[in-house]
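Title: Request for sanity check on Cobyric acid synthase prediction

Description:
We are preparing a figure and want to confirm that the structure record we downloaded matches what your pipeline produces today. Could someone re-run it with the sequence below and paste the raw structure tokens into this thread? We only need the token string, no images.
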Amino acid sequence: MSGALRGALLIAGTTSDAGKSVVVAGICRMLARRGVRVAPFKAQNMSNNSVVTLDGGEIGRAQALQARACGLEPSVRFNPVLLKPGSDRRSQLVVRGKAIGTVGARDYFTRRQQLREVVADELASLRAEFDVVICEGAGSPAEINLRATDLANMGLARAADLPVLLVGDIDRGGVLAHLFGTVAVLEPEDQQLISGFIVNKFRGDVSLLQPGIDQLTGLTGRPTLGVLPFADDLWLDAEDSLGTVAGTPVGRPAPPHGTDWLTVAAIRLPRISNSTDIEALACEPGVSVHWADSPHQLTSADLVVVPGSKSTISDLEWLRAKGLGEALCTRAAAGRPILGICGGYQMLGRRIVDGVEHVDTEHGSLPTVVDGLGLLDLDIEFADPKIAQQVTGAAGEHAVHGYEIHHGRVHRTGDPAWLTIAGAPEGSAQEAIWGTHVHGVLESDEFRRGWLTEVAHRAGRPEFVVAPATSVASVREAQLDLLADLIEKNLDLAALETLIREGSSGGAVIRTATIGSN
């Protein structure tokens, strides 16, 4: 970048999972490699994939990855408002990292002014401290029914006078219509801030797309700054739940070091949280991980993982209704490996007492006391305050690290502990069943390798050999560098710099008329 670069930019998307998060991460890493002091910002996120910051706050996982791209520790400043859906109608509201209650759409509407002030304060603080702030929108700015309460898209762009680049996923089809239509439905003042487009996940010959891009420029007066190619190697830290459809693989595993593969089925719970826990397993050569939501998908798997849940009792009811609870009990009786993480761990116990809130279903309010699957000798009670903290400890001779986000407490257990966290026993290890409240523990490389060796033994896979040097942190860094390489090679960096430095008025071709105006 030429000269000192200062400014901010908003990356919006035509849809959820259009590529906003990865584009922001790629731009952040590209700028950081060039010596720019850059920070990410997402005013409001809606996700059950969160991480815990050093000071015990929660932020969306994508913002933690973007912080890493910038060479920064995750901070609640980068994602001041987080919504964690617990049902179709209500979400837990997390402000500046702390849960302050649950809200519905109408409740959220009444809080909009307070939240706008929180967002404005944090963004102003970041812009004063860093050279560049790259902001990420939420969902799509074309959700015009939500415009009045918008904190993260055009509401943020208007309030902070940010130029906006709109990302569209061509892999879904209809990307040119998505880009044009998104701009067209916006009100004129919002349209003026849309400064260009980025086409994401393109496969094939770009020259075949160029006529369409030229026509889009003619129709909108806005340039396309680049076409990013589809990259098979980008899959780690996938925040959006759209990527966790049952039956789909996680990652692209390298061939095994031995002659045996190890297969993993991860149950796709309706209110799954921190689904990215299983990605550390998918980093291992010879470990094949798939999402599952039916009993037959568990039958052939060497290991079944029951991941975290934002609504443990509701998801436990679903598990039973789908026949998955019975399938897990059959596995346990046969001594076949099962791992439960956080909410999944709680489901494996004998009893759950919900003292925080009742969960409503179509059949009425669920009871506050329910039976678990009984695979572990464990009683859980939900209580306030919510536990959110980073933790370190050990499993035998191996160091472990991770984070906890849960209301559930172990009220009683008769199981041997699996881990030692801060000197205290944690989790359960009973024959071929393991459980823990700690997210991210599988990213502890030496621990993961030793545990997978035991899993393979119990699963009857004697020829499975754990790779000696897989590093999840190194895989993550390599993916961030790949993102930055894609940005550098495929985006118009001069135009990008101009937008950051000069705002929407500095765009190469910014049309003064609005689409649809006469």
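Thanks, this matches our download. Residues 244-471 form a domain with the Rossmann fold fold (CATH 3.40.50.880).
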